[in-house]
UniProtKB/TrEMBL annotation:
<dbReference type="Pfam" id="PF14748">
    <property type="entry name" value="P5CR_dimer"/>
</dbReference>
<keyword id="KW-0560">Oxidoreductase</keyword>
<dbReference type="InterPro" id="IPR029036">
    <property type="entry name" value="P5CR_dimer"/>
</dbReference>
<dbReference type="GO" id="GO:0004735">
    <property type="term" value="F:pyrroline-5-carboxylate reductase activity"/>
</dbReference>
<dbReference type="GO" id="GO:0055129">
    <property type="term" value="P:L-proline biosynthetic process"/>
</dbReference>
<comment type="function">
    <text>Catalyzes the reduction of 1-pyrroline-5-carboxylate (PCA) to L-proline.</text>
</comment>
<dbReference type="InterPro" id="IPR008927">
    <property type="entry name" value="6-PGluconate_DH-like_C_sf"/>
</dbReference>
<protein>
    <recommendedName>
        <fullName>Pyrroline-5-carboxylate reductase dimerisation domain-containing protein</fullName>
    </recommendedName>
</protein>
<feature type="domain" description="Pyrroline-5-carboxylate reductase dimerisation">
    <location>
        <begin position="44"/>
        <end position="148"/>
    </location>
</feature>
<keyword id="KW-0521">NADP</keyword>
<dbReference type="InterPro" id="IPR053790">
    <property type="entry name" value="P5CR-like_CS"/>
</dbReference>
<comment type="similarity">
    <text>Belongs to the pyrroline-5-carboxylate reductase family.</text>
</comment>
Amino acid sequence: MTNTPALVDEAMSVISAGSHATADHLTHAEEIFGAVGKTLRVPESQQDACTALSGSGPAYFFYLVEAMTDAGILLGLPRDKAHELIVQSAIGAATMLRDSGEHPVKLRENVTSPAGTTINAIRELENHGVRAALIAALEAARDRSRELASGTKD
C-alpha cells in the first residue's frame, strides 16, 4: 500500500510478507516503491493501522490546511496569503520533525511560550476535543480498512 504523495515522489509505502513471499520479493517491492518515496515493512496485522495513518493521512492533512485557510480568511487574510503561510509552515514543521530526531512534543513545546498565542490556541484545541477526535477518526479508518479487507461490508 502506498499513498498519494507518490505523485510527487514523497510516498510512504507499507509492505507485508505474504505466505509465499521470499526475501527477494520483499526487496524487489521495496525497490519499486522506493522510486516514489519511502517503504516500511510491517506485519500483515498492522496493515489496517498503516492504512488509517498513512494511506488516508494526506487527506487529514489537506483537511487541516483547508480549516486553517478558512481561519486565516476569518482573521482577515486573503486566501492565497493564508494558504502560502500554512503550506510553508507545514513544510518547515515536517522537515524539522523528520530531520531533528526530536519528539513532536518537544518541538511543539519549543514554540509554546508561557501565556503566549500558541498555548492559548492549544488550549482551545484541547477544550474542543481535537486530540480525541483525531484518535477516534483514525480508529474508524482502521476499522473500515478491516471491513474492506474482509469483504464483509460494502
